[in-house]
Amino acid sequence: MPQDVKTDVPKVLDKTTPGLQMWRVENMELVPCPPKTYGQFFEGDSYVILYTHKTSNNYTYDLHYWLGKAASQDEQGAAAIYTTQMDEHLGGVAVQHRETQGHESATFQGYFKQGIIYKKGGVASGMKQVETNTYNIRRLLHVKGNKHVVAGEVEMSWNSFNQGDVFLLDLGSLIIQWNGPKSNRMERLRGMNLAKDIRDRERGGRAQVTVVEGDDEKSSEEAMKLMIQALGEKKHIRDAIPDNIVDEKLKTDCYLLDQGGIKIFIWKGKKASKTERAESLKKAEAYIKAKGYPASTYVETVSEGAESSVFKQLFQKWTDKGQTAGLGSTHSPGKIAKVEQVKFDATSMHARPDLAAQQKMVDDGSGEAEVWRIEDNELVPVERKWLGHFYGGDCYLILYKYEVNRKLYYILYMWQVSVSSLTASAYQAVILDQKYNGEPVQVRVPMGKEPMHLMAIFKGKMVIYEEGSSREGSSHSQPSVRLFHVHGTNEFNTRATEVPPRSSSLNSNDVFVLSTDKSCYLWYGKGCSGDEREMAKTLADIISKREKHVIAEGQEPADFWVNLGGKSQYASSKRYSKTGTFITPRLFECSNQTGRFIATEITNFNQDDLDEDDVMLLDIWDQVHLWIGKGANDKEKHEAVVTAQEYLKSHPAGRDLDTPILVVKQGFEPPTFTGWFHAWDPQKWSVS
């Protein structure tokens, strides 16, 4: 690997401007690429690409070095060295990626929304980066990809064509798009976007773009004449070529993680030596050779404390410092962080959809709600006195209506104890959904996973019983001793959940209600707040009509422990903030057409990436949104929830299968969904 790189990295690097920066290695020097050439790569060159993300209080970085298939070994080595030097200058927190031509990662492809163009030649053959307004061009581009477009220069001949793809014949002042008869709508749209991008960036907007439909060439006589002049007499066009389906899915030292030969991750601990950190990419390349993996194998380097979401999600349990595990135990002996209680402002939810998305609240729950219990596969309205009471022996549907700008919106919650109870609730949900013309957002809510907005509907008076039923004539006998764990600080986030009546269920951070045939106790843990105590008083009155005995932790009477079967050890460590970890939202296109579930990730996504003919999956970790386009087929619509469950099952991190699933229809997206998309346009789709 060459050591005589010539560029002083700090002089060319801007580490505070969000967005993309790109350099080409020219004679061992790092030369900035003009923004108008971003997405264009010479096959004989190597490049370094930096993407800077601005978060609320700092910056994160993705560093890529891209190797053309004809790049020299010296330039490839120089690109790797410059990448390592940039990482050091950025404080060692950048995620490093090794990219090779034709095998780019989804993250890399996502930077270039109009597509990637491979150009013949390189700096060694005198090819310049900037050739704006140059019209003496003759090239044929083969366009591939629905979500991530790649266009490579191919031989100027009809032999290069096939019936399943899109081709661009670039003649300088005229760009002809030829659509294969078997190409799909999205491929044609992406091809047109790329053609217009070439026109605007390379020709200053002065070239013409025209389209030839491969199955109706007679309608484009003039364009066909020009194609024949450039390519010769037309020959038989080959059949469509099927796409190869590729499944792309510690201590303080340096580690290498091999994801089955598909991806290689290098994890650099904070105590790793400078030599270990500098040579990590070299070690990865040596490992690839030793294992006999293809030279195009993807490599990503992450540093301790700055791991990417993709890396974290390969682990069944990834815990950051200060992160709470469940409701009790905590990770790491660091400083205790006080959890800041932020006042909920309902008026901001629709003006600030990004805030609505973060808090998962469309409003303050003051809309109209109807609640049904499912009995013998039929909907039975829940009596007013039982509203807010959810029994483990029942399934419930809650239809919530709210108004924005004089338009009604609907959310349909399906509360259930287990997957086995899904059939009846799903059947009735379909009927209700049809009654409201398919407009409701459907939310599957497993017991114990109630979202904040559902709690807000019941104004802090939600009680969840482990078993039993509220239906008339129920034969289920009420236990003589019941223990409820109260969690929440206001009417938007509070619920009482029944837990086993034993002392090991207690937690010093919270409030509990112990209800017996003779008395009712309010137990205040040492770590609970005043707001939590106030909310618990309200819930205790709902749970029991008996006089309440308030008990502070450590001052329990003997009778209290007798009702819990005796005193034993329970969770007593102070709870850390849960807000330290932010999982980056991820958008996927879902498909099971090949007989197995495939989720193709779309990085740096925006509203344009939502394909009207598809089902898209937005994963925000503690919830999964399924977006159903207008053109999705009936099977995809009916199997939407199954698709989401399949995604959770196949996730490498061993996801919780009870993660709430929300079904969202095109044109009826709530702010809790649109807030994850930058500059969402509510008028983009007109829905009658």
UniProtKB/TrEMBL annotation:
It is found in: Cytoplasm, Cytoskeleton. Residues 28-108, 149-214, 253-311, 377-455, 494-561, 598-673 form the Gelsolin-like domain. GO terms for cellular component: actin cytoskeleton; cytoplasm; lamellipodium. One of its GO terms (molecular function) is phosphatidylinositol-4,5-bisphosphate binding. It comes from the Eukaryota. Pfam families: Gelsolin (PF00626). InterPro entries: ADF-H/Gelsolin-like_dom_sf (IPR029006), Gelsolin-like_dom (IPR007123), Gelsolin-like_dom_sf (IPR036180), Villin/Gelsolin (IPR007122). GO terms for biological process: actin filament severing; actin polymerization or depolymerization; barbed-end actin filament capping; regulation of lamellipodium morphogenesis. Coiled coil: none annotated. Keywords: Actin capping, Actin-binding, Calcium, Cytoplasm, Cytoskeleton, Repeat. SUPFAM superfamilies: Actin depolymerizing proteins (SSF55753), C-terminal, gelsolin-like domain of Sec23/24 (SSF82754). Belongs to the villin/gelsolin family. PANTHER family: VILLIN, VILLIN-1. This is Villin-1-like. It comes from Sinocyclocheilus anshuiensis. The gene is LOC107676071.
